[in-house]
């Protein structure tokens, strides 16, 4: 009886120690504004973009898979988005860039502006998320960009 109890306790101990070693997703530390700029600067290819629009609690999601010619290029005061369009001349979307927020930056173009939050940052991968309102005041757009080098 005592041997059975000891084995049970040892088994529970091993189980608990294994569970405590389970990998948990570590929270990404907040980057300073300067670190944010340094992480983002350069050319990033587009792996995919998830688009979501929500109106009064109803959300629709769509996606875009990047081609080998699609990329974001971030500079110290500007950004350019290149997307391939079959049969069209490749014209970049141009933005002013401000790297003044910790863990985020702002892109503006004419009267449009959006804050891009860094959700994941590695040497070869960057995940950006931005939310903004459009002409419809009840609609919230959320774009998630999966970028790689």
TrEMBL record:
<protein>
    <recommendedName>
        <fullName>Lipocalin-like domain-containing protein</fullName>
    </recommendedName>
</protein>
